Amino acid sequence: MSVASLRNTTGIMLAGSDALVGSLPGLLDPLCETDRRRVLAIGREEVLPAGKHVWRQGDLQNGIYLIEEGRIRSYYAAPSGREVTLAYWFAGNFVGGPDLFGTGAHVWSSVAVERSRVTFLPGPALRALAHQSASIAVALLDALAFKARCYSAMAQMLGTRSVTERLHRLLVFLSNIYGSQQGREIVIGIPFTHGDLANLIGSTRQWVTVQLSRMQARGVIRYHRGLIVILNMRALDLEVV
Which positions fall inside the Cyclic nucleotide-binding domain (predicted)? Predict the structure, then answer.
């Protein structure tokens, strides 16, 4: 599945409803051509190799980064060093909130999972544009409100669902949003390691490895080199309330 085909999807995260993370216009999509050019005019394009941090937790905020292509992972690192993935974001989305205009410290980190092209929008210039254009201000508010809903839904899932339910719910979400039907099977077109899945559901890599092996033995999934194939969606759906 190409980045282009993911253009109208929001990203990958833990959420109780596909409706929440279905399709959302990119940050610039609601804008007229004039406002779109005004936003891009204040930007500076950067290319990030895989593994390069956009910023680290605790760094001072100075603006936001609009993703042009690639994949960016946002995550929180606990004092123990354990990481919880908040989301993977694709083209059209931005990373850098909640302080859009560049004040305070970043409360989580963001890193390029693959080679990514981003446009940095400096906070002070973005604030000035928001004062000048109601359309730009509303687009920023809508995008920020959407992310707040996503992170709120993730917190609810972590606080109210068992880790097994969270894993099953994540697999259902990935199947519905990023899966392609191939005969009776659903192939999730984005590879994930056991560690990736563990970080998304707030678990450990060892636990995920055991659970995937059990599901594979029961004929629910097939997992090979990061690619997940759903063999029995009904079995997953029955375990997601």
Answer: 27-96
* pTM: predicted TM-score of the whole model, two decimal places: 0.83
Distance CA 120, CA 126 (A): 10
Per-residue pLDDT tens listing for the chain (241 residues): 333 343 445 578 887 666 665 555 678 888 999 999 999 999 999 999 999 999 999 999 999 999 999 999 999 998 888 888 888 898 888 999 788 898 889 999 999 999 999 999 999 999 999 999 999 999 999 888 888 888 888 888 888 889 999 999 899 888 887 888 898 899 998 888 899 999 999 899 999 999 999 999 999 999 988 889 999 988 887 655 4
Q: What is the set of domains in the chain, with CATH numbers?
A: 18-158 (2.60.120.10), 163-239 (1.10.10.10)
